[in-house]
Amino acid sequence: MEKSQLKYVYLVILSLIWGSSFILIKKALGQENGNLTLTPLQLGALRVILSGVILTVIGLSSFKKASKSDYLWLFISGLLGTFFPVFLFAYAQTEIDSAVSGILNSTVPLITLILGAIVFGISFSRVQLLGVIIGLGGAIGLIFAGMEGNPDQNYLFAGFVLIACCCYASNVNIIKRYLQNVKPLAIAAGNFIFITPLAVIVLFLSDGHSLDYTNPQIQKSLGYIVVLCIFGTVAAKIMFNKLVQITSPVFASSVTYLMPVVGLTWGILDGESFNLWQGISTAVIIFAVVLVTRAKKEKPATD
């Protein structure tokens, strides 16, 4: 398949997988019963550890072919692209709806453009700058509309999602600039080889080793985590790394086009409330992402 066609196939598949990850995080936490089955630290640590085991098994030989000079960037990419976000999203969804998390995640292309311009020297147009301003306004509107429509939820936790988005945006620029010649599987495996030991430490510090894994509720949560690991982390991460390499950081991050729709659909099906102003804010964010990703193709970052 031609690269021009393949990139859109990757885009749609990733949107469906990652758009579904927010409801899976919610279910893994056990929030449907009003109580947390797992803490955010336990969920994040287990997700990294299980994904690390899978990727080490299937990707170790590929990782060994990577240059040792890439190891530092593989570690940094692992921290920004996976380690920090898995905990940030888990903490965020203890207070805000999964649909809102999915929609706020669509600000990644906007943040990618900002960081790409400031840190990595990627050019941008006035229209793209306008898109960033509009998008950030939409994100703020979504947060305030959520606060009004769901006064029992602490929307300050939406800040965790935005921090995670900054991590994702930094990661796509790092992959494009510093890991362009490393195979996608080697990047994914390398990421987890470096961050899995950190996740093991977090699991022990959060008493994850003392959980009753024979408990049906915990087993149910683990089932959701396994699905998250196989599809939302392992398969999607390899695919996303490839997408970044064959396109650009901003195009790759436009996977968030469809993610809000998928995330919102799952949220509504799960009984989450969503008001008119949140809908308007969502439309504003998506419009801004269109401006940023379509207005002007940025120059690829160079070493």
UniProtKB/TrEMBL annotation:
Membrane topology: Multi-pass membrane protein
Short name of one Pfam family: EamA
Organism: Nonlabens tegetincola
Keyword match NAD: no
Start and end residues of each EamA domain: 8-143, 160-293
Keyword line: Membrane, Transmembrane, Transmembrane helix
Subcellular location: Membrane
Protein name: Permease of the drug/metabolite transporter (DMT) superfamily
Cellular component terms per the entry's GO annotation: membrane
Major localisation: membrane
Superkingdom: Bacteria
Transmembrane segments annotated in the record for this chain: 7-25, 45-63, 70-91, 103-122, 129-147, 153-173, 185-206, 221-238, 250-269, 275-293
Claim: DNA repair is one of the keywords in the record: no
